[in-house]
Amino acid sequence: MRPIQITSIEYIRVLPELILTLFGAAIMMAEAFMKGRASRKPLGILGFVGAMLAFAASVFQCRVVEVNGQQVSPYMGYAFFDLVRVDHFSIFFHAVICLVSAFAILASLDWVDDQIDRVGEYYALILLGTVGMVLMSSAMELVLIFVALEISSIASYVLAGFRRRSASSAESALKYFLLGSFATAFFLYGVALIFGGVGTTNINGIAAAIQNNAHPVIIGNAVQWLPINYGLVYAAVALMFVGIGFKVAAAPFHIWTPDVYEGAPSPVVGLMSTAPKAAAFAVLLRIFFAAATPGWFWMVWAVAALSMTLGNIGALVQNNIKRLLAYSSIAHAGYLLVAFVGYRSSEPGTVQYGITAAIFYACSYAFMNLGAFVVVSQIAGPDERFTSLEDYAGLARRSPVLAATLTIFLLSLIGIPLTGGFFAKFYVFSAALHGNLIWLTVIGVVNSAVAAYYYLRVIVVMYMREPAGNVDAPLAAVPNGIGVAMICTAAITIFLGVWPQGVINFVNQSARDLLQ
């Protein structure tokens, strides 16, 4: 028997995960040697360095070298017995998730120090949760995706309840945990059914079995080909979509979202409303397109329309900024799902167009929504007291920088030109039109118009209303960490709206790699 060997290049293919794990463990050990009242900012800085090094490692995996006159990427390919695949698709999501985690850590530096219990494991949980998120985007085995999903989810459950002396935070963590565990069971049961239907849980194996309409089974010393049980496959796809639909807060699996967003710390909400969603959408792209699973089109069509409609209608009546952004995230999950179904046209390249639109939307939404919650975190304060729309009245006078920055993010969420949100929605609705999905496009455009009302309502409150108290009372100075996170997310949002082609070129290659 040939000995099992793992080459050194395979470790480079999981280098971002290794870096995040090592830095997370280092933070946990360093925390044990710190005094109870000592500042935890050094641990946060260490976590930021770890996230940025993981981002650099992801970029390094794109390195191209010349071999025999040909340009090759030596660090792309499969690793650990085809459990993990490094390609432009996984690298792109790795980079986005690592950057989001790094900015979330920066936004949390002063928030953690303002808590009565200064807990450095907060930063370790972010890094270790990020390990699960990045692994979800590169895993080629459904069981490994489940393990990565649980790593990410458990960290999110704990982070949601980190305001230990707040009843609303404890309530949000409990709701998130109970409903999340229930949704995870759906996903795991779907994995079991897909194995029963096609005889494997490997993404490539599922695609091959569906293409051949049969799967191999070894009976004795002979290989026999058995037909696929499509009843099990359809049920499996539906169950797995329920599990992932909960993670991305798509209707009707969205019930947990407003309460969890309201009770969890704002920096945590900024993280868990973006990075885990990006990872979950990466999993959906793998399952629906790379594995070529059937039977999901009309299910996703209905969920996309429902998410856009319920999310925007719910946001219209909110007076709490965190709940407003929670319903907004439900609507944006629907917009992104539109790109999934916008592939039906017989025109060549339409499938790739829809995938490209979905990936770009996930990237744009991650940074503009994270930036919005970074600003909300600063305005709300360490005890999360100032979260109603009334608290934003006259913000333009009290803090012009915060008002202007939040305006950029809100305009991007609307889809105004010169922001990343504009091109994100443009590509999504273009994909739907390419797929002849006229009614779904109409539903999306109408919902976008409805969404403009409640986003513009916040801007009106900031610039055109007087606060109830002292008009000239300024807000607290913006800490360095929050300031850097705000500037970076705003710059990326504008960059994606001014020159998206640089990112689109890489995203196009990501879509091609996914379909190979």
Largest sheet entry: 2 strands, antiparallel
Q: Please report the distance between the alpha carbons of the first and last residues.
A: 31 Å
Number of strands: 6
Poorly predicted runs are none
Overall mean pLDDT stands at 90
Shape: globular
Q: Please state how the strands of the largest beta sheet are arranged side by side.
A: 1-2
What is the alpha-carbon Rg in Å?
A: 23 Å
Helix content: over 70%
| Global structural class | mainly alpha
Please write the string of helix (H) and strand (E) elements.
HHHEEEEHHHHHEEHHHHHHHHHHHHH
How much of the residues is beta strand, in percent? under 5%
Task: Based on the model shown, name its key terms.
516 residues, single chain, two-stranded antiparallel sheet, globular, 5% strand, mainly alpha, 21 helices
Structure summary:
The protein has 21 helices and six strands. It is mainly α and 516 residues long.
Describe what this molecule looks like in 3D.
Helix content is 71%, strand content 5%. By secondary structure, the chain is mainly alpha-helical. α2 packs antiparallel against α5, α7 crosses α10 and α9 runs antiparallel to α12. The longest helix is centred in the middle third of the chain and has 32 residues. It is globular. The mean pLDDT is 90.
What does the secondary structure layout of this molecule look like, with pairings?
Elements: H1 8-13, H2 15-32, H3 41-60, E1 65-67, E2 70-72, E3 77-79, E4 84-86, H4 88-114, H5 121-138, H6 142-160, H7 167-198, H8 203-212, E5 214-219, E6 222-227, H9 230-247, H10 257-263, H11 266-272, H12 275-290, H13 297-316, H14 321-341, H15 350-380, H16 395-398, H17 400-414, H18 420-434, H19 438-464, H20 480-498, H21 501-515
Antiparallel strand pairs: 1-2, 3-4, 5-6
